[in-house]
Amino acid sequence: MAPIILCSIAALAIIGERLWSLQTRYVAPAGLLPQVRQWLERRELDGERLALLRDSSPLGRVMAAGLMNRGHKRAVVKEAIEDAGRHVVPELERYLNPLGTIAAIAPFLGLLGTVLGMIRMFAGVGSHGLGDPSVVAAGISQALVSTASGLTVAIPSLMFYRYFRARVDALLVDMEQEAIKLVEIIQGTRESG
């Protein structure tokens, strides 16, 4: 039971942290592109504002990479944005692999508890005989509790793992769309407004 309890604590911590960190307002704030467009139109985009943009969010880092290369050809700007995006992805996926691992191993830990409970039961039957039903009941109880505990940890962990994977994918699509709009603005192929 101790490993299952540790897994449940770790899963709860990861789920809470990811629910907080993967909010759109922290990853891809809605007003970021209009703010950048305004800075470009007013020619107010300087090193200080680029640093502010880079430190604001993952989308800000991607946009800052493109803006730092805005004097170059479109291909260079897109390459800088893509490179920054590749560095942002691991940050968005942080802790998802451990959560997936917890979802995968928790049922096995429960199964291990089941096997140990059955061993305990048969050892009790071997030493006390079938005359004492409490020995059999204790082993069966241990087996059932550990199986249920393993599944109780695994099922929500797997659900949140899948949810966070889909959430990261959706955020990446949003960031990609914003980055494409930024490239079009920089290259002058997109109208303001």
List the helices and strands and how they pair.
Blueprint: H1 2-21, H2 24-27, H3 32-41, H4 47-56, H5 58-68, H6 74-92, H7 96-128, H8 133-187
Q: Summarize the biggest pleated sheet.
A: none
Radius of gyration: 26 Å
Arithmetic mean pLDDT: 89
Q: Class by helix and strand content?
A: mainly alpha
Strand content: under 5%
**Rough outline:** rod-shaped
Which regions contain 5 or more consecutive residues with pLDDT less than 50? none
* Strand count: 0
The rounded distance between the terminal residues' Cα atoms is 59 Å
Helical coverage, percent range? over 70%
Helix-strand topology string: HHHHHHHH
Number of helices: 8
Write a structural description.
It is a single chain. With 193 residues, the chain is mainly α. It has a domain at 2-94 and 165-187. The chain is 84% helix and 0% strand. The protein contains 8 helices and no strands. The protein has helices spanning 2-21, 24-27, 32-41, 47-56, 58-68, 74-92, 96-128, 133-187. α1 (2-21) runs parallel beside α8 (133-187) and α5 (58-68) packs parallel to α8. The longest helix is centred in the C-terminal third of the chain and has 55 residues, at 133-187.
Sum this structure up briefly:
The protein is mainly α and about 190 residues long. The chain is built from eight helices and no strands. Helix 6 (about 75-90) runs antiparallel to helix 8 (about 135-185).
Name its key features.
single chain; 193 residues; mainly alpha; 84% helix; rod-shaped
